[in-house]
């Protein structure tokens, strides 16, 4: 099919097995990824239906959410059950599983690109919303629910309606003080947690081109916090270079095809949002959803910042949960814990940025700093580069394990009720990092600077 197509449309059309009566399409899935949460019931239902996994060779599983990251760490009872189930289910179906202790274990969205398994033009689905991360490689990748997991296990296809195309055009040059995380937060603050609902975001423009592939993953990762299904970035030299380092010479023939994975000039998007990167600086969340964030030199909102009584009521609820005063300068907010990690910011470049700020400095007294590599491979790389030394000299706890850790509190890494963290993860919902926990979403650089002073800080402040 020709014409002026968007990138999402190209990948979609390449994968339609057949249109369905209700207006959706039956889409072919190139790779199906699983983790231990949300999959046990899918396997139970599959067995109950008397079916088997159709393409174990196109299915991959990892252990990440429940995995302990400390020395001799243990899962809790629920975590152990889920771990045992994914092991039994994968063994019983011939599915490759990267379990705790395996050299390729880690957070699913970090491991898949690392292993060269996410390549331009593919469709990848996983039982996890942040599958959107892989869009940075020109892959149409999105999260699915347990029922859909069963369908994909059984058929390697998925009935689904095609989402709208939303172009996020990011012009200008991102200031040195800001990162892809800040871009993502600025976008979500602007369009809201529902601003991307029903759509796939394609990130475009010179500011996106200027980002490394890993930084593009950070941006695509947070697409779901704006309500989008997926994020996408067109393939360019940086993408091809990244893939070469991951796949060697294995896919040389595919390179011309990879390079077609961009929207045609003149392709029409259903919605367009413009953002000027030059206006984006370091940001921090003040509230209990990712859209409630502002420039770090700002103040927590007060009545005059709210357009309506209803907005003020919502704002007051978030402020109360977060233990902040209206109008409180964000730089005055003190934290107990700093967490660097997650599928948003747990890759090697994130650890390098963290180390560059921590180098020659100390974590403030009374502050606990947890650094958790997104994968075992990221951790090995960090050690090879000597980042582990920087972390330990600074007094940070660079965990021996890899996984979701304190992003989601489904393991032993948790905040106590009322505790406050600066965190490089992607969600600041009530209780996200432990019951009664308070989360401020920030970039790795801001996290590191905050660890040094014990209050929300940018590296430029040090
Ligand atoms: C546990 C999983 C289903 C969930 C997700 O879908 O994103 C988790 O990874 C999260 O980040 O909240
Ligand atoms: S690191 Fe956090 S956001 Fe990413 S998959 Fe794990 S729990 Fe979800």
From TrEMBL:
PROSITE patterns: ACONITASE_1. Residues 9-454 form the Aconitase/3-isopropylmalate dehydratase large subunit alpha/beta/alpha domain. Residues 419-444 are annotated as: Disordered. It catalyses: (2R,3S)-3-isopropylmalate = (2S)-2-isopropylmalate. GO terms for molecular function: 3-isopropylmalate dehydratase activity; 4 iron, 4 sulfur cluster binding; metal ion binding. Keywords: 4Fe-4S, Amino-acid biosynthesis, Branched-chain amino acid biosynthesis, Iron, Iron-sulfur, Leucine biosynthesis, Lyase, Metal-binding. The keyword Magnesium does not apply. Its EC number is 4.2.1.33. InterPro entries: 3-IsopropMal_deHydase_lsu, Acnase/IPM_dHydase_lsu_aba_1/3, Acoase/IPM_deHydtase_lsu_aba, Aconitase_4Fe-4S_BS, Aconitase_4Fe-4S_dom, IPM_dehydratase_rel_enz, IPMI_cat. It is an enzyme of class 4 (lyase). Pathway: Amino-acid biosynthesis; L-leucine biosynthesis; L-leucine from 3-methyl-2-oxobutanoate: step 2/4. Its cofactor is [4Fe-4S] cluster. Pfam families: Aconitase. One of its GO terms (biological process) is L-leucine biosynthetic process. Catalyzes the isomerization between 2-isopropylmalate and 3-isopropylmalate, via the formation of 2-isopropylmaleate. Belongs to the aconitase/IPM isomerase family. This is 3-isopropylmalate dehydratase. It comes from Umezawaea tangerina.
């Amino acid at each position: 099919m020709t014409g002026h197509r968007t990138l999402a449309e190209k990948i979609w059309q390449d994968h339609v097995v057949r249109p369905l009566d209700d207006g959706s399409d039956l889409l072919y899935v190139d790779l199906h990824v699983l983790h231990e949460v949300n999959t046990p019931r899918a396997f139970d239902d599959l067995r109950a239906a008397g079916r088997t996994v159709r393409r174990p060779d196109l299915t991959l599983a990892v252990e990440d959410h429940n995995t302990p990251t400390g020395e001799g760490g243990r899962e809790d009872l629920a975590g152990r059950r889920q771990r045992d189930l994914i092991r039994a289910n994968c063994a019983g179906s011939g599915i490759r599983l990267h379990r705790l202790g395996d050299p390729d274990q880690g957070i699913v969205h970090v491991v898949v690109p690392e292993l060269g398994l996410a390549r331009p033009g593919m469709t990848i689905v996983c039982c996890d919303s942040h599958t959107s991360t892989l869009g940075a490689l020109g892959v149409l990748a999105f999260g699915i629910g347990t029922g859909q997991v069963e369908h994909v296990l059984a058929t390697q296809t998925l009935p689904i309606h095609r989402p709208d195309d939303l172009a996020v055009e990011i012009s200008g040059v991102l200031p040195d003080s800001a990162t892809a995380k800040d871009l993502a937060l600025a976008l979500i603050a602007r369009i809201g947690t529902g601003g991307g609902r029903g759509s796939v975001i394609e990130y475009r423009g010179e500011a996106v081109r200027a980002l490394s592939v890993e930084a593009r993953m950070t941006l695509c990762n947070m697409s779901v916090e704006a309500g989008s299904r997926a994020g996408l970035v067109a393939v360019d030299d940086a993408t091809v270079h990244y893939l070469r380092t991951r796949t060697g010479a294995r896919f040389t023939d595919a390179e011309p095809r990879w390079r077609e994975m961009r929207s045609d000039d003149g392709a029409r998007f259903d919605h367009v949002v413009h953002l000027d990167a030059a206006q984006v600086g370091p940001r921090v969340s003040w509230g209990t959803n990712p859209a409630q964030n502002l420039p770090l030199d700002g103040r927590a909102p007060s009545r005059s910042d709210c357009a309506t009584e209803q907005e003020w009521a919502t704002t007051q609820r978030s402020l109360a949960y977060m233990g902040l005063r209206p109008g409180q300068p964000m730089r005055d907010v003190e934290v107990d814990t700093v967490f660097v990690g997650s599928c948003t910011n747990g890759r090697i470049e994130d650890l390098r940025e963290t180390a560059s700020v921590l180098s020659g400095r100390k974590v403030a007294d009374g502050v606990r700093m947890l650094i958790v590599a997104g994968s075992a491979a990221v951790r090995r790389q960090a050690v090879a580069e000597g980042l582990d030394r920087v972390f330990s000299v600074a007094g940070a706890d660079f965990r021996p394990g890899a996984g979701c850790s304190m992003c989601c509190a489904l393991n032993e890494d948790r905040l106590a009720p009322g505790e406050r963290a600066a965190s490089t993860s992607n969600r600041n919902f009530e209780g996200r990092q432990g019951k009664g926990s308070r989360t401020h979403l920030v970039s790795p650089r801001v996290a590191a600077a905050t660890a040094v002073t014990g209050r929300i800080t940018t590296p430029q402040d040090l």
